[in-house]
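Hey, I'm writing a tutorial for new members on how sequence and structure tokens pair up, and I'd like a real worked example in the thread rather than a made-up one. If someone can provide the structure for the chain below, I'll link this post from the tutorial.
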Amino acid sequence: MPGPRSFLDRAHRFLASRLAEAGGEGETLNSVTMMLGMAAEYAKTGNLYQATVPLAYCETAAQSL
């Protein structure tokens, strides 16, 4: 079963591909993609606590959708 590191990495890659399809347009999508990428990087280093900070920003930004 995939762990949080794998999940965050896959989610980031998915959103990055959607952002590319949109031609980089969409301020909210861009913000969420960037913050999710940061969370994935923190998770890769094993710092899951620090990964929660950019995830909280993702949640805040996603609420505006």
